[in-house]
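Tutorial sheet, problem 5. The two components below are modelled jointly, 516 residues in total.
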Amino acid sequence: MTEKTDLKYTAEHEWVKVDGDTVTVGITDYAAEKLGDVVYVDLPAAGTAITAGTVVGEIESTKSVGELFAPVDGEVVESNQAVVDSPELVNSDPFGEGWLLKVTAASLPTLLSHDEYRALTGE
Amino acid sequence: MTDATGTTTDPGTTERRSPLDEVHRAEGASFTDFAGWQMPVRYSSDLAEHHAVRQHAGLFDLSHMGEILVVGPEASDALDYALAGKLSAIVEGQAKYSLLLARDGGVIDDLVVYRTGEDRYMVVANAANREVVAEELRNRTAPFDAEVFDESDDIALIALQGPDALEVLQQTEGFGIQGPGNDDEDFDTAVAALKYYRAIGAEFEGGPVLVARTGYTGEDGFELYVAPDRAKRLWEALRETGGPRVVPCGLASRDTLRLEAGMPLYGHELGRDILPVQAGLGRVVALTKEGDFVGRSAIEQGPAEGAHVLVGLTAEGRRAPRAGYAVFDGEGDDAREVGEVTSGALSPTLGHPVAMAFVAPEAAEPGSQLFVDVRGTRIPATVTALPFYKRGA
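Model answer (structure tokens):
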């Protein structure tokens, strides 16, 4: 179990877990809560090259559509099929089973700490 | 992830709070800015709240809506002139869906009008349009012996919607019919006998409440107009009586419910640049009524040749057409853009995407195959008669 405090964050409400040169990406509980019930998730396939800051996927709720931004440069090694099949995992377990992508990162940009992210969301 | 709230807060607006605000906080609501009001968008889950209304009952706070009284010996004539419908034709205790039209036939607001007495009407306006509706009604009724009072601040509104709504209302203690000698039994009989779009003057714990069999969800249900200082007690009583059968519901579920029921939303399917007939509301405009009414000549002239008309769209999969998305008559590069989506969602009840869109008349035939550009992908969508969902069907 990873603590939220051990994760890194983006201003676009993604969390990033760094493990060597592999990073796992998801969206935060704050974002999941704001989106409402997630009903559709579109993720890039394994092998896709991604560039930090660009749109790589979509997270759609009953109410609105959110874009998933790549938090790092790299290549997708796995996208979470369980979330594609059961999008509600993004709401029920955003930091666990609701993870979205595993990426081999070329380099790590500067990301927010847990405290910095909390300050950003005012929570 | 972009900011996904889907809502904006105008920093210039004064934030208004419902008389039920404290209750909503205790219920764990998330809030959204709605026409300057902080109103509950959801309590737990949009989907759970949506399903609760379809299967049992949901409770909505609609205290942000505007209630404007038109009172006087010529109130009927005044409203026949001011609004598109023939309000003089409804009887005391009856309600009617109507439209406030501009001179050019565009829709300023859609309204529910209750006749609460021989010379007394209550016009219920959308929160965002409350002031313009009150002002237009004042101007338009000035030549008549009738007065307009904006009572919005003195009236709270709670909607109890769903198949269990009647039973919950009957089981809730404290209700009686207005007048001498009332008791619970009279109330139970009266609400059971209340027809759709009818209302009765009742009491709740000694204070007046207008109980109307109206709603915006496609289900059976009631809308309860009550003084703000009694709203909390009423909400709590309905919650306590209903137990797990009554789920507090936010405006997000209200939107998917009304969309499934094919009901127009002001600012989406209705607006100043849309004639009622384009939105399928030609029947709401009483052209047969005698005398002039605001917008009459424009309505008689009709929309311009080729004006877009409102249709339902259904699609497969899970990606929903959303407001603002372009509609095409084909998949390829040579396809013609024939319209635009006004509302859309993955229907929680039906399990597939549904949408409403304004499209060119030649593309509006039910069964026609159209394509919606969903963020760069054209997804096929079939023109479908509204509503998408009909209770008991």
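Marking note: The first strand of chain B starts at residue 16 and ends at 17. Full credit if you identified this.
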